[in-house]
Amino acid sequence: MSARNILLIEDNPDDEALTLRAFRKNNISNPVVVARDGAEALDYLFATGEHAGRDVSDLPQVVLLDLKLPKVDGLEVLRRVRADERTRLLPVVILTSSGEERDLVEGYRLGANSYVRKPVDFDAFVEAARQLGLYWLLLNEMPPRPMG
């Protein structure tokens, strides 16, 4: 069975490049699907719009979700993921530069599995990506895939 992908929902091209570079540097070889706004992320997860026809049961291993997104913000993406039976158990890690306590509280209230503040320093970011990859891709046990 091939490695399940990572869904990175990130609108900042610099943060996207930094995340992908940090994964490469840490030998995280899972394919990464990038959605650059909340609407695109929902289209991917629910196989609608430009992702119509995609196998909706082929869920990512983990979703890395930024909060400050165009079109549909990250908390609304999380709300919709948790409201749908097909994606309710999907691991979602909020990966954001937001230090606002209300974002942290609301993220957990809506069902985030983890909340990680993006380090500003590249080396710290690489280390955070290494730890995220180690935990979510190797240590964490996933619920069985839903039957489609």
UniProtKB/TrEMBL annotation:
Q: What's in the keyword line of the UniProt record?
A: Phosphoprotein
Matches recorded under InterPro entries: CheY-like_superfamily (IPR011006), Sig_transdc_resp-reg_receiver (IPR001789), TCS_response_regulator (IPR052893)
**CDD domains, alphabetized:** REC_Rcp-like
PROSITE patterns, per database record = RESPONSE_REGULATORY
* Top-level taxon in the UniProt lineage: Bacteria
**Which Gene3D superfamilies does this UniProt record tie to the protein?**
3.40.50.2300
- Asked if the keyword Flavoprotein belongs to this entry, the reply reads no
- In its UniProt record, which GO terms are filed under biological process? phosphorelay signal transduction system
PANTHER family linked: RESPONSE REGULATOR RCP1-RELATED, TWO-COMPONENT SYSTEM REGULATORY PROTEIN
Q: What protein name applies here?
A: Two-component system, unclassified family, response regulator
